[in-house]
Amino acid sequence: MRRSVRKWGRLCAVAALWPWLAMAQQVAPAASTAAPARAVSVALPDIPFAAADAAAVSVPSAANAWGGERSGNEPMLSDRVVSYRIDATLDAAKHTVSGQQHMTWRNRSDRPLSKVYFHLYLNAFQNEGSTWFTERKVLTAHGSSRGAAVLKKGEWGWIELKQVKQGDAALKWRFVQPDGGPASDQTVARIDLAEPVPAGGTLTLDIDFLSQLPRVVERTGWWGDFNLVAQWFPKIGVLELAGERGASAPRWNVHEFHFNSEFYADFGLYDVRLTVPSDYTVGAVGKRQGPPETANGKSTYHYVQGDVHDFAWVAAKGYKTLDGTWQGPGSPKVDVRVIYPEEYAASAAPVLKATTDSLTYFSNSLGAYPYQTVTAVVPPYNASEAGGMEYPTFFTADGYAKVEPGTLTQYALDFVTIHEFGHGYFYGILASNEFEEPMLDEGMNEYWDDRMLRARGQDIVAASGWTKRLGIAPTIPPFVLERMIAGLRQPPDPLGANAWNRLSSSSYGTVYARTATAMHDLEERLGKPVLERAMHEYYRRWRFRHPSVADLRATLAEVSGKPQAVDAIFDQYVYGTAQIDDRVASIDTAEVLPLAGSTLKDGKRSELDGDALDKQADKQRKDWDHAHPDAKPGSGPFPWHSTITVRRDGAPVPQLLRVKFADGSHEDVRWNDGRRWARFDFTRPAKAVSAALDPEQKILLDTNKLNDSRTTMADGSASRRWSADAASLLQVFYALMGSL
Which of 420, 562, 611, 623 is spaced 20 to 30 A from 224 at the CA atom? Predict the structure, then answer.
C-alpha cells in the first residue's frame, strides 16, 4: 500500500471545478469533430441510467425477456444484439494495442436513440482519480483485496478514442459518470449520433482506438513479455427493456468500472484479427480460423466466436502449449488448450485435467457446453493479479513450479481452474449482471464448484510434500471451509447487495462463501436431487438471457415445490442481513412423585406426609434397582418430567428438536413458529439426558452450531472435539509453513 494518498480536499476541489474544465477535457479532440453532426428536428427523450445503487432484483423477468427462452433449435444460441469486427496490432515493446473496430448494434427498444454509451474499462487505470482507485482507498482501508498493485511511472493504462464515425460523419463524445462517481472518472463515454438509430433499427460505428495496457493489475495488463489483453476495446453498454431484470421501462445499464465490480454486456458475434510478433504465443476467446498469416516478423491470428459477450486474449513470448480434446452428450467436440510459461510447466497437465473434468461435471449437472474451445492461460511469476480471471471460452489459472498430488498446491491449482472454468457457465452462458448481482456469478459458481469437488471426493489437503511425508496431512471438506469463512454473524450487507456499495472489500469477498453456504443450506432443506433439478432448469430456462436474483428464486421455488423454504432464505439472507442462531438453553428434569399435602376425594379428606412419602419413594427405588441391575441411570420406578427450553437469537427457521432419554429412546418435535423462545415438556419412564436442535445438520446458516445441543451427563466428546481441532490447527499451520 502507498504510505501517502492524495487528500480528499484536493479531490473535492477537482470535482468542484470539473464542470468548467469538462468543456476542455471531456470532448473528443478537434480532429474527431471535423464533420458537423446533422441537426435533429425533434429532441428525443433521454433514456435513464440504471440506478446508481441498483442491487438484487426482486421482481422476476418477463417471459419474453431477452427474446424469450432458447429452445436450442434457433440458428443462433443467443439473441445477438451486437457484432464486433476488430483489427488489432500489439506493440510488444510499448504494450499498446492499436485497433480499428467496426461495430453493428441493434436498437431493441421502441424509440429512436440519438446517443449511445460505451465502456472504456482501461481508463480505470489511467490515474488515481478514477472511480476504481478512489473506491479502493475506502474499501481496502478495513479489509484486503487482490487489486492491491501500486502503479508507477510508465505502468498506467488507458484507452483513447482516436476517431468515431457513423458513416461519413465524425462523432463527438464526452465522459459521463452514471453512478455519480468522481468527475475525473473516464470509464464511460457518451457518443452523440449524427443520425438517430430508429426503434428496431441498426447502428453501425467505426472506431479507431489505442489501448495502453497497464502493468498487470486486476484482470489485465503486462509483465515482461507477457500481455493479458482484457477489457481493451470500446464496448457498448446494455440497453435493458421493460420486463428485463426488474426494469419497468428502457434504461441504460452502463455502470462505471467500480473497484469490486466485474462486467456486463450484450451477447453478440466477435470477429477479431490479432497481429503480434511472430515469436509470441497467442490464445483468445473463440476458435482460430486456420494458421496465422506471417510476414515481416509479424503474425496475424484470426479468431471468431458467436454468442458471447466479451473478447480477451493473451500474447506471450516463448510460451508453450498443451492440447487436449473433450466430447460430451449434446456438446460439440471441444479443443482444450493450456498456454503456460516454462517455469510453470508442472502446472500444465493438472490444469488440462481439471478443465476437462469440469467440462464433464458442468455439462452433466447443468447443461451441455455449447462452444468448440476452452483456453486456459497460466500467468508468469510476478503476474499473480492476472491469474484467476474468466472470459467466455477463455480463462487464466494459477501456476506452480512443483505440483505434488495430495498437497495444498494440488488442491489450490485444481480449485482455481475449476472455479474459472465454472464462470464460463454463470458469467458466460447465463450472463448475469456482475455489477449489480455478484452473488449470481461469483457466489453461485463457488457453490457449484464445491459440489464438483464433493462429487470428486476431493477435500482440502493442508499439506506440503514434506509434511505429508511426515504424516501431517489434515483435510477439510470444501463446504465446511466455506461455512467457516462466510462471516455469518452480523453480516454488514445483504448477500444480494451490488458489488461496490458495501462496507468494505472484505464484505464483498464474503459473497463467495456466503452464497455457497446459503445454497448448501437450501440444498439440505430441499434435498440434493431436487436442488440439482432446479438448477438444471434454471440453466435451461435462462441460458443466454441475463437472469436476475428474482429469476433464480422463482425457478427454485417452482421446481422444488417448496416456495416457503426458498423464500425464507432469500427474504432473510439475500435481500436482508438476518442471521440465524437457535440454541438449547436448558434441560430440567424431575421425578414425578406422589405429592405431599391435603386432598379431598369422594367427600373424604386425606393428608400425605412428605417425610413418609420420601421414605416410601426411597424403598421403591431400592426395590426397583434390585429388580433391574442393568438399568441405566435416569430410569426408575417413577416417571420423569423433562423440560427443554430453546432460545432464538436470530431469524426464525424451521427446526427439529431431538431429545434423547436415559433408556436410549428419543423423541423428535418441531419448532416451526417465530417465537423467541419455547419450552417442550416430556413425561416418560426415563429422564432426558440430551437435546439437540438440527440433529441432521441441515441448517448450515446457523452462526453457532456448538450451542445447538446440550447434555445433562458428563460427555468427553466436546473436549475431544476441541483437542482434535487444536491438533488440526497446528497441523495446518505446519503444513502451510512447509508450503512457503
Answer: 420
